Amino acid sequence: MATKINWELLLASILIISTVVLTAVAFFRWVNLGFSIGPYRFTHWVSWIGAIYIALAVPLIAIFKRRTPLKIKALLRIHVYGNLLAFMLITIHFASQVSRSPLPDLGTGLALYVVVLFLVATGFLQRFRIVPSIKPQINRFIHANVALSFYLIIGIHILHGVGII
């Protein structure tokens, strides 16, 4: 008997595996990602792209879901795969930051990365129901509140980065 392949789960898993591989590339410096583009390092640019995507796309998708409920499947796919790609970019930055010195000053960046990691984990569990014993309402509640934490911590991280706090 043939088993039906869950293509969405397979694609999401490939993105996660690709993130792990690119993390190793950045962490062990197999490829030089420390070059500058303008005043900032390449890895800063990619993390900003990822963070800005999450910061803007998440509320926009929530708005569009309410206004165009017939397109919810397409919006969900954009949310899942777009955020996984953004997570990949943020992870590349985090790995390169951690590997820069023996004792890097991670501060708010570490807190922000942990929050993004929780967003991905709770989103993955919610979307693909990998642990059926977790009630969807509980997972959705946790996922939404971790998203709120993301906005709070990214604000603090930006203020810290520009030297205001």
Can you walk me through this structure?
By secondary structure, the protein is mostly helical. The chain has one domain. The protein is built from five helices and two strands; from the N terminus they run αββαααα. Strands 1-2 form a two-stranded antiparallel sheet. β1 and β2 form a beta hairpin. α2 packs antiparallel against α3, α3 runs antiparallel to α4 and α4 packs antiparallel against α5. The radius of gyration is 17 Å and the shape is globular. The mean pLDDT is 87.
Ordered list of secondary-structure elements with their pairings:
Elements (H helix, E strand, L loop, with lengths): L6 H21 L8 E2 L2 E2 H26 L4 H27 L8 H22 L7 H26 L4
Antiparallel strand pairs: 1-2
Helix pairs in contact: 1-3, 2-3, 3-4, 4-5
Q: Which geometry do the CA atoms define?
A: globular
Low-pLDDT residue intervals, each spanning 5 or more residues: none
Number of domains: 1
Say how many strands there are. Answer: 2
Strand order in the sheet with the most strands: 1-2
Residue-averaged pLDDT: 87
Helix content: over 70%
What's the story with the biggest beta sheet? 2 strands, antiparallel
Tell me the fraction of residues in β-strands, as a range.
Answer: under 5%
